[in-house]
Amino acid sequence: MRILVLLNPTNKRGTKAAYTELRKFLVRDGYILLQSEVFMRITNNRKGAEKHLNRIKNYIPDTGTVRILRLTEKQFCNMGLYQAERDFQEEIVGVNDYISL
Description:
- The protein is 36% helix and 23% strand.
- The chain is an alpha+beta fold.
- It has a four-stranded antiparallel beta sheet.
- It is globular, with a radius of gyration of 15 Å.
């Protein structure tokens, strides 16, 4: 199971510090940056995902929105990537290869 955390900060006063603290927590907790303002973590099962969701709730800022999406491996593998040119990671690894972390 995978957890996707989607951040949408606002320009209100104090938001920048709160979201910086949330981002630092996510990186310390093992999340990887999937794209700008989107973090991902792999968990073993639903119980592990619930544990991580409860930990994130302590860091959610008062402004902006934080969306959390739980996906199974099959759902995550059906995600498509569409872009005009290949990025650096695709040049090195390839588009169909999995990276083991």
